[in-house]
Amino acid sequence: MKALSMLYKALFITMSTSKIYLSSPHMGGSEQEFVNEAFATNWIAPLGPNVTGFEEDIKKYLQKNTDFNAPQQEIEVAALSSGTAALHLALILLDVQPGDEVICQSLTFSASANPIVYVGATPVFIDSEEETWNMCPIHLEAAIVDRIAKGKKPKAIIGVHLYGMPFQVEKIVAIAKKYEIALVEDSAEALGSTYNGQKCGTFGDLSILSFNGNKIITTSGGGALITKTKAQKDKAVFLATQARDQAPHYEHSEIGYNYRMSNVCAGIGRGQMQVLDAHVALRRKNNFFYTQLFKNINSVRIFMEPNKTYVSNHWLSCIVIDKKMSNGIGPTEVRLALEKENIESRPLWKPMHLQPIFKDAPYYGSRVAENLFHNGLCLPSASNLTSADLHRIEKTIRHCFNN
């Protein structure tokens, strides 16, 4: 009896301290059916009915606005192996060449900037603004004017919807059009977010999505390039499948890449699309949970939409802590307290202009992105968090601040 009691106790401790991840995959139930169909029909290749179906599912979703007055966008979708691959192909389609310059938001994941280097171009980094934490329009225009004065008009602008929060779309788009610079919309973290009723992923001259394992929906790994024309999509697919020319033998006039999504992974994506809206609703519910948790903790500010024009999917819920107001409790202290309870959290992205690999790249701005990095924290935000998980998170955070 004593041995059985100890076993139950050990099981309880294991269950109560199981890992709570920052953003884990969340299956909906029908993914396996699409995957099984791929196996049953022997479509185990980077083409097939799931790839075509997944592209059509994404297209229909992005074209369905939440505001009926928002214009429907004419778009095409190419399913690829990653969001990074989509960005790389976007820059190639825009004919970005070695020696060109591409403007990029500094406060982002390195995958937003790395493809600039892939094509031999130079990144020019822009600071954030306080409201959305995204690219500051004022610093963006100042950078463009300065680069033009130096004889280096930027070839493209990569704008990021950070953690699912739309950037200041109207201002950024207006600046891009004013100076006739192509806008690449990095919507890797923002599937399901909207600006003025229009879906993120439809604002750029070219746009990208990511279906990495930690995103709102996942295909294990994967991404998509959103184009305005079928010709652009066809070119992207051509390049993504090793740029094989029309010939009975293998003929190549251009450098190609192995970037196409497999039919098996696309099957997972088709199942995930069926639960996308539900996952967005659950992420937004998590964000509301954190607003209530920190409501009376004046030293903490929740990352929220600045007004009703913005609707974030709240892929990750984030906070900024004023350490002077919290008696020395900052993001490191909260992160370590959560880690002690086997709960994952993470600092905000370290700005690209502070990364060793980009230390010599031009940067325009002040210290907004830098201050966010030093004072911010990403909290567990998965759509499959349970009530027990949320209780553990709340208990740990309250204990941290009360002490």
Description of the molecule:
By secondary structure, this protein is an alpha/beta fold. The chain folds into two domains: 19-26 and 277-402, Aspartate Aminotransferase, domain 1 (Alpha-Beta Complex); 31-274, Type I PLP-dependent aspartate aminotransferase-like (Major domain) (Aspartate Aminotransferase, domain 2). Helices cover 38% and strands 14% of the residues. Strands 1-9-8-5-4-2-3-14 form an eight-stranded mixed beta sheet, sandwiched between helices. A four-stranded antiparallel beta sheet has the order 10-12-15-13. A three-stranded antiparallel beta sheet has the order 7-6-11. α3 packs parallel to α9. It is globular. Residues 7-14 have low confidence and may be disordered.
Keywords:
403 residues; Aspartate Aminotransferase, domain 1; Aspartate Aminotransferase, domain 2; eight-stranded mixed sheet; four-stranded antiparallel sheet; 13 helices; 38% helix
**Overall CATH class of the largest domain:** Alpha Beta
Mean pLDDT, to the nearest integer, reads 95
- As a percent range, the share of strand residues is 5-15%
Q: How many beta-strand segments?
A: 15
User: What is the CATH topology assignment of the largest domain?
Assistant: Aspartate Aminotransferase, domain 2
Tell me the strand order in the biggest sheet.
1-9-8-5-4-2-3-14
CATH architecture of the largest domain: 3-Layer(aba) Sandwich
Distance between the termini: 39 Å
CATH superfamily of the largest domain: Type I PLP-dependent aspartate aminotransferase-like (Major domain)
The domain tally reads: 2
